[in-house]
Design a protein that fits this description.
Maltoporin, Chain A; CarboxyPept-like_regulatory; six-stranded mixed beta sheet; single chain; 37-stranded mixed beta sheet
């Protein structure tokens, strides 16, 4: 269908080409060319000149057009042409204007405008009317993508901030914006490249990887409440409720999001919760040459695959606000609450490499999760020379999981597991930025973190685990094993930067900083007896009472130099480390002085083309969990014991990134390659017998390597967009299994190609193909898995108010050995009707219309290969009513 549409379009169109120059015949780069059909005054086509001033647009034959040329600082020009079947050449000379571009733009909307580092898309120039949310609009903008997780990417880089009318929208996440902001409220999307939260530091720091989005609303949506209220239901007590309200004005803004459903829609996942950064302005823990993360081991809850499960029940609510008490003071924040009850069922096979043992498991899990986030921000900016930012982010959660597992290996065992925890973390930062004069800038950033984790684990099983290691009472009817843990963390990071601007294109950056952390960890393993009593174990190795202190004092020096088209930023940090762990009545202290260099080079040979090199050496430290020597249950067949003599590891990382965005033909290319080498790396040392294992962490001179690469090509030919993407990841690692070094290699390849249309008055179709290869090699065992995944997306607007949407994904999963093969597909569709100028929309929706029952996944580590079959929700058909406010 798409090919026939392309053929028909080509047969009825001609090409308008030419060159746009100034009065001295110098070419004008990124000048806008717009063609307006004289018959219906609709925007027919647009183009942007390349660095040679050349443009090219396709027009329909035998039509009359008004061709409009505009360029920042120049008077616009208009021509009227009538096409026949011959191509047309139109060269234009533009003269400097006395009026600015804003006065010109009110006469017509330019699809794409470039203003320095800002790219402005007029959304009405790209949409077809079938779009529902911001994500649907963004996917039609050249150079903008929404990945499988709902996160927004521009130029292959993740968008770090989304704003609406200049106000933060749930700062620290882009998924909530892409999935919730109504498409019909959008006027323009501004892509802010090289974005800096602090304007004073924009010229002295590197922001090439920082991209923000600002959403401009239609005039009717400003200073008025807008949004939508959606409710629906279906058979088997299925329901959906989605009220969403928004208000934006120069003084304050409010956004309210809610989502209650049991049809498998996930507005907020545990992964979203832990990845939610809160949008902290400072970088006290970033790029200092040290990697030290204070986080507990957590529960290790079962993860959803492709955001699907056997049953999902979700309740979600969120509020975002901003308020300006004065022109120099701004308050903002958000609150998020998410509840989910998830049922998971998995059938899996694990092949243990060292022992050759096969284990087959059937697992059912009941997960209940309550997640909360509260963020407050105060920004005080009385002048262009001073800025003070304060942020506080509170994380609260209550998670538990009940699991029943039937394990069949050399023996058969029924295992009931319970996991529970209620952790919290409070993170605060205070940042001050002061410009003394044009040559001297100061930045002070302080961040504190306090938190507590209390993971609890219980396993009830028929077979005695780890006989000879833990003296369980074998005279009981079963083995009721319990483990309580508690981790308390207090940490502070501080960094003072002084920027000395030595010239128009150079500056020096002097840094002083510190990290001070203190952690306490206690744990105990005990057995619940038949009478309800507890059997406590006195052995020291079955409990923990540990104190871990970490100190890092550092100083750094960096030079930033702009030489022609190159930006060069070399530097180094000098660190003085001290780490002490106290346990078992003694203490062990490790002290180290270390110098770590880094280098950043950016070659910007065009405004929209660059090549970046980034090299960094990082000293990596583990937190208290890796030092506590007492045994800890990771799961029913795995114990972990820390290593109090563990030292740091050294990581070398180098990456190369290429980006090209050609506005002339709407071609977008990006590629990146990254190589990492770990010296004295942390290694897992495992003693394994059958399927039971005891793990610890050691340092080893066996070096690990990883190499990854990603490339993407996207180009628009008239109304057809062609996209390709390739991702390759290779790793070569060593670990210790039963006192023997074991080499593990993996190679993952993922390729995607698609072809899609963007017609305004005709149905649109996207067809694509995704191919995935996972190759795992460990010892004498090698496994290769393949997944073919063709996909189709279709949308159509018809009969003055009807919209039909459908997407289909087909999976063919198999292994090279021919022992596994499974085919399945997922089809989702909706048919909606909204009478023109009506607030009401009625829709019929279907998910998993093919009624597929399960999907497959494979994984690999140094101990085993794992393949699994994972049950998912069946077909649901439900009716929805939506009211637009």
């Amino acid at each position: 269908m798409v090919l026939l549409a392309c053929t028909g379009l080509s047969a009825q169109s001609i090409t308008l080409t030419g060159k746009v120059s100034d009065s001295l015949q110098n070419p004008l780069d990124v000048a806008n060319v717009v063609a307006v059909n004289q018959k219906d005054q609709a925007l027919e086509a647009f183009g942007i000149t390349n660095p040679q001033g050349e443009y090219k647009i396709n027009l329909k034959a035998n039509n009359s057009y008004k061709i409009k040329f505009s360029y920042l600082g120049f008077a616009p020009k208009e021509f009227t042409i009538t096409t026949n079947t011959e191509d047309i050449i139109l060269n234009v000379t533009m003269l400097e204007a006395t009026q600015n571009l804003d006065e010109v733009e009110v006469t017509y909307e330019i699809p794409i405008t470039i203003k320095g580092d800002t790219l402005v898309y007029n959304t009405d120039s790209f949409v077809s009317g079938t779009e529902k949310k911001l994500a649907d609009v963004l996917e039609k903008l050249p150079g903008v993508e929404v990945n499988d997780d709902g996160e927004i990417e521009v130029e292959g880089k993740r968008v770090s901030k989304v704003m609406v009318e200049g106000e933060d929208f749930f700062d620290g996440d882009s998924k909530l914006a892409s999935k919730n902001i109504p498409a019909n409220a959008l006027d323009k999307v501004e892509v802010l490249r090289n974005y800096s939260e602090v304007s004073q530091l924009k010229g002295v720091t590197n922001n090439q990887d920082n991209i923000a989005l600002n959403i401009k609303l239609k005039e009717g949506k400003k200073k008025f409440w807008f949004g939508e209220i959606t409710a629906g239901g279906g058979a088997d007590e299925r329901y959906v409720v989605h009220p969403k309200l928004f208000y934006y004005s120069p003084k304050y803004s409010v956004s309210v999001l809610t989502d209650l459903n049991n049809v498998g829609e996930l507005p907020f996942t545990s992964r979203d919760y832990w990845n939610f950064t809160g949008g902290f302005r400072g970088g006290t823990q970033q790029n200092t040459g040290t990697s030290f993360t204070t986080s507990g081991g957590g529960l290790g809850l079962s993860l959803l695959q492709n955001n699907r499960a056997k049953e999902i029940n979700t309740k979600f609510g969120a509020v975002n606000f901003s308020y300006k008490p004065s022109n120099s003071w701004r308050l903002s924040g958000f609150g998020i609450y998410s509840y989910s009850n998830t049922l998971l069922e998995t059938v899996a096979t694990r092949q243990f490499i060292s022992s050759g043992q096969m284990e087959q498991t059937t697992t059912s899990a009941d997960q209940r999760s309550k997640l909360g986030l509260i963020k407050l921000n105060s920004s005080f900016n009385p002048s262009s020379n001073f800025q003070w930012e304060y942020d506080a982010l509170l994380r609260l959660s209550n998670e538990n999981e009940d699991t029943n597992t039937l394990s069949v290996a050399d023996v058969t065992d029924e295992i009931q597991e319970v996991q529970d925890q209620q952790p919290y973390t409070l993170t605060q930062n205070s940042n001050m930025y002061y410009t003394l004069n044009l040559k001297h800038i100061f930045a002070l950033e302080i961040e504190s973190q306090t938190g507590e984790e209390d993971p609890f684990y219980e396993a009830i099983r028929d077979q005695q685990p780890f006989a000879g290691t833990i003296p369980f009472d074998a005279g009981q009817s079963n083995f009721d094993i319990n483990q309580a843990q508690r981790v308390k963390t207090n940490r502070i990071d501080a960094k003072l930067d002084y920027f000395w601007v030595t010239g128009a294109k150079s500056n020096l950056n002097f840094t002083l900083g510190t990290t001070q952390s203190s952690q306490d960890f206690d744990s105990r393993i005990f057995q619940i007896l038949d009478g309800g009593g507890e059997l406590e174990f006195e052995e020291a190795e079955l409990g923990n009472d540990v104190r871990f202190d970490f100190s890092d004092l550092f100083a750094g020096l960096h030079l930033k130099l702009i030489a022609g088209k190159f930006t060069i930023n070399p530097g180094f940090f000098v660190h003085q480390y001290r780490a002490t762990n106290r346990q078992l009545g003694t203490s062990v202290t490790d002290e180290l002085t270390n110098v770590v260099p880094d280098l950043f080079i950016n070659w910007q040979w065009k405004q929209s083309e660059s090549l970046r090199l980034n090299y960094r050496v990082t000293r990596n430290f583990s937190d208290i969990n890796s030092f506590a020597q007492g045994l800890i249950f990771n799961n029913y067949n795995a114990l972990y014991s820390g290593n109090r003599d563990l030292e740091s590891a050294l990581y070398h990382n180098v990456s190369l990134n290429f980006f090209s965005f050609n506005m002339f033909n709407l071609q977008n290319i990006f590629a990146n390659a990254s190589y990492s080498r770990r010296i004295d790396a942390f290694k897992s040392s495992t003693a394994i017998r059958g399927i039971n294992q005891v793990n610890t962490t050691i340092n080893s001179n066996l070096e690990d390597e990883t190499l990854s690469g990603t490339g993407s090509f996207q180009r628009t030919f008239g109304k057809i967009k062609v996209s390709t993407r390739a991702t390759v990841f290779w790793s070569n690692t060593f670990n210790i299994i039963n006192d023997q070094a074991q080499n593990s290699r993996s190679l993952t390849q993922d390729y995607t190609a698609s072809l899609g249309s963007s017609f305004r008055k005709a149905p649109n179709l996207e067809i694509g193909y995704r191919y995935n290869i996972n190759n795992y090699e460990n010892g004498a065992i090698e496994s290769t898995f393949y997944t073919d995944r063709p996909f189709v997306k279709f949308d159509a607007s018809f009969l003055n108010g009807f919209i039909f949407l459908a997407d289909y994904d087909y999976f063919n999963y198999r292994d090279k050995a021919g022992t596994i093969e499974n085919e399945y597909g997922f089809l989702n569709a909706s048919l909606s009707y909204q009478k023109p100028d009506s607030h009401w929309e009625f829709s019929l929706n279907g998910t998993n219309l093919t009624n597929n029952t399960d999907l497959n996944q494979d994984s690999f580590n140094d101990l085993f290969f794992r393949t699994s079959q994972y049950l998912v929700q069946p077909r649901y058909i439900y009716f929805k009513i939506k009211y637009d406010l």
